[in-house]
Amino acid sequence: MKKPLVFLMVLLLLFSGMALAETETDALAQYALQSDVSVEMDLDGDGTAETLVFRSVADAENDAGYAEIQVTAAGGGVAVWTSETLFLPSAYACDLDGDGVVEIFVCGDWASADYATYCLHYADGALAELSFANASRGDDSEPYIGYGYGYIQSIGDNELALCGSQDVLGTYFGTRTFALQDGRFEFADDGLWRFLMDEETWEYRSLTPTQNIAATFVEDGGQTEGEIAAGTRFVITASDKTSVAWFQTEDGREGYFSIAPDEERGWGCTVNGVPESELFEMVPYAD
User: CA torsion angle for 10, 13, 19, 25 (degrees, to 10)?
Assistant: First the structure.
């Protein structure tokens, strides 16, 4: 891919990601913490309220910022957690799984629309991070990591939806759902990243194959084997990133086809055994 196009893709993901991250539904806003505003809340379920403060701290020297969570116990003890660099951090607090212990969420942008969400528990006078099933964009060799990859899209009924950029035949913002189980966040969905569609998708992130692609079309609950004809534009709507990609063609047909990691190249995908670089006019990766 030519460098100007790569740069354009980075900018598109950055600005669309910022807009998406700043958009809160009413259901999410009810859990939001305001920077430098203290709230009284029983965080550990012991019947006594603690004082919780979220701070979005500017770091003018590095043109960045970070998040800070401070909890003051009724007896006066103070616990503080500080994030690494985060642009435009936000924070939320709720008892996600209804066990009496409050989950404190902090999310923000590391850089270039690369979002992370941390979850903290307050117990025994200290703040501790909870781990998440690994949904990172890059290396997924570790099954669990110390943060959730992506920004918070929704909260409720022991479900946390996170949305972050993913690579599969291009770079897209995809959502996964998590549930809190035995003290850590597990995947709670069908294994697919469901990609957000916006008005820029067709213009900048569509795919045009140079040869026919064998695919399964799905309509009215039925499935039909067929082909996406060469020259037919389509977009990727969902994928597990390793074995299947769901699509929608420009004329509205939907379905899926097989993909696999490109072991020979060490990066990217093959589609029905054909390397993506040989199959499409252009593949819209952001970097």
Answer: -150
Unique residue bearing structure tokens 């809340």: 41
For the chain, the 3-state helix, strand and coil shares in percent, each to the nearest 5, are 10, 50, 40
List, for residues 53-69, the tens digit of each pLDDT value.
999 999 777 677 999 99
Q: What is residue 239's DSSP assignment?
A: E
Between CA 143 and CA 33, with CA 147 as vertex, the angle to 5 degrees is 155
Contact 236, 253 (CB under 8 A): no
What is the residue whose two structure tokens read 């957690």? 81
Beta bridge partner(s), residue 60 = none
Both tokens of 7, joined, read: 């740069």
Give the whole-angstrom CA distance, residue 188 versus residue 190: 7
Query: What is the residue type of 232?
Result: T
Q: In a 3-state reduction of DSSP, which class is residue 258?
A: strand
Instruction: Using 50 as the pLDDT threshold, list the residues of the chain that sit under it.
Output: 1-24
Buried b (16+ CB within 10 A) or exposed e, 144-159: ebebbbbbbbbbeebe
Buried b (16+ CB within 10 A) or exposed e, 123-133: eeeebeebbbb
